[in-house]
Specification:
There is one protein chain. The protein is built from 5 helices and 12 strands. Strands 3, 5, 6, 7, 9, 11 and 12 form a 7-stranded antiparallel sheet that branches. Strands 4-10-8 form a 3-stranded antiparallel sheet, with no helix packed on it. It has helices at residues 14-21, 92-105, 110-113, 164-167, 193-204, and strands spanning 44-45, 50-51, 55-57, 71-73, 78-83, 121-125, 129-134, 138-139, 148-149, 154-157, 176-182, 185-186. Helix 1 runs parallel beside helix 5. It has a single domain, classed as Glucose Permease (Domain IIA), CATH 2.70.70.10. The chain starts with 13 loop residues before the first helix and ends with a helix.
Length: 207
């Protein structure tokens, strides 16, 4: 799945994203897209010379309290294509190597960036959609690759794996990083801030 770079990103319109992904539920019950720009797709990530490809859900900015015990939900029915049951948190020294690799590669090499996502679940959906759930503290023990799941299935719990806090075993920075891909391209790649906000609200806003 991560053998090479993602396909060249094509810029989607808000109408296309809404039409293709307008029936998703929130990956965290009662949560809304963050009110903070740095949590949105397209925000720069200077520490690794890249761009944020997904949406972060944090306490307060996304509504409800979000802790290491908060369930992460599948946003639509689909098939599990990745479930990191055997994940092992890197040491700070190992994470520094991962950061250097990602800094040099930018976002062009998903293999280099992948370790910074920590423990993950990926779900393939109909209509050319795929969703990625990162930084989890755990993956549901009953979840296996190949499982067909329904919208709202608990995939795991929010965590800080793959982050600096995770590497140092610190008890903070608990959040969910959520990504949406359409035809294997990041859904919000190249969008303006205004279009990102509009499409986030249409796809993941309150129902």
């Amino acid at each position: 799945m991560l053998a090479g770079a993602w396909p060249p990103a094509r810029q989607l319109t808000t109408d296309e994203v809404t039409a293709r992904a307008g029936n998703l539920i929130s990956p965290i019950a009662g949560a809304r897209p963050s009110t903070r720009y740095t949590h949105w797709p397209g925000a720069p990530r200077d520490y690794r010379n890249g761009t944020h490809l997904g949406l972060d859900y944090y306490t307060g900015y996304s509504g409800p309290a979000i802790t290491e015990h908060t369930p992460v939900l599948a946003v639509a029915e689909g098939w599990v294509i990745r479930a990191d049951h055997g994940y092992r948190e890197p040491t700070p020294q190992q994470r520094a190597v991962f950061l250097d690799q990602a800094r040099r590669a930018g976002d062009d090499d998903p293999v280099a960036v992948d370790p910074l996502h920590g423990r993950q679940v990926w779900v393939l959906h109909s209509g050319g959609l795929m969703t990625r759930y990162s930084h989890l503290s755990s993956v549901s023990s009953s979840l296996n690759v190949g499982d067909r799941i329904e919208a709202g299935t608990v995939l795991g719990k929010v965590g800080n794996s793959g982050t600096n806090a995770g590497a140092t075993r610190a008890g903070y920075d608990y959040h969910l990083h959520f990504e949406l891909y359409i035809d294997w391209c990041p859904a919000w790649a190249g969008m303006s801030q205004a279009d990102v906000v509009a499409s986030l609200g249409a796809v993941l806003g309150p129902r």
